[in-house]
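User: I'm putting together notes for a lab meeting next week and I want to include a structural view of one of the chains we've been expressing. I don't have a solved structure, so I'd like a prediction I can at least talk through. The sequence is below, exactly as it appears in our construct file.
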Amino acid sequence: MQVHTTKELQALVPKMREKEFYVSQKPRRIDWAAYTANQINDIINTIYFVKTEVDKVYCPLKHNRVGRPSVNAGFLAKGILFIESLQITERKAEGWISIMGPHLGFSQRLDDRVIGKAYTRKDVIDILEQVFKNNLECDGQMSGDGSVIEKTRKENYESDKKSKKKSKKKGLHLTSIVDSKERVLAFDVGGTQECRAMHFLVKEVADIIKRDVNKLLKKTKLTLDSGFVDKKLAQLIEESGIIPYIFPKKNNVLKSKGHPAWKRMLLNLLEDVQAWLKEYHIRSHAESFHSSFKRIFGIITKKLDDAAYTQVLARIIHNNRRKTDYYNLANLP
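Assistant: Thanks for the context. Below is the predicted structure for the 333-residue chain, given as structure tokens.
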């Protein structure tokens, strides 16, 4: 077996960033018939999904206390999911829900102020989190990334005229792990630095992977860019039964310093750089997800942290449902 050195690694990394170095692969085929059918049936699938999935996890308790009972949390969870699917304001939602409520499984009229406050209600958030968990699917080919979702349109254009540099965006920072079908498996919107957040997300994903032994046998992977260079993270990923592919920086060394997964990952890179890059470039799905997520759902309109989290959670639930529906129709690998 060939002996590799840190000097060899540091000479290779700049070359890996050159445009023509990587032998690109054929793009995944798009089934346009399935895509069109999924778009047409989206509203039908949305209504059915919202009604059935919330009903699976929520059973209202009897009101045995004095005073007016609070609005049913299940109704509010359905309302939020419906609102975020259509991307409408609470005032417009009140009218929409008065018409669509029976199709969603309830007939109670929801006031726009009640809907707005529902985004911070813990019982409503618990329902949405359970709906998210119940519909998690993973193909084992995972990638992670971080991105800023704007809270105002101004953040897209604002700049510092003196320095002629774009100002630092102040939106909501979203760090996520997705599979190759761009379904979100775990995410963080708490403002935690993305590399630190990835430690927690890997632990969440490890629990999902453990439910399906076949995923472990198929060599589950997680690809990350150089912003996630961290020996402890590489070790955590490997110990979770996942193969790490973290793009190195030009000053990285082979020494593991107590984290052998780091050295094994880089030695695999040096043994066959093209094969390693082929696996690494599934990371493009994470970038694609963040780009499409922001394009489809737009800015975050909620100001409070809990409300913004609920809004992102509801939107991710719809993203996952739509991607799963498409691949079921297309019957693609």
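A couple of points you could mention at the meeting. The CA atoms of residues 149 and 172 lie 5 Å apart. Residues 33-132 form one domain.

User: Perfect, that's what I needed.
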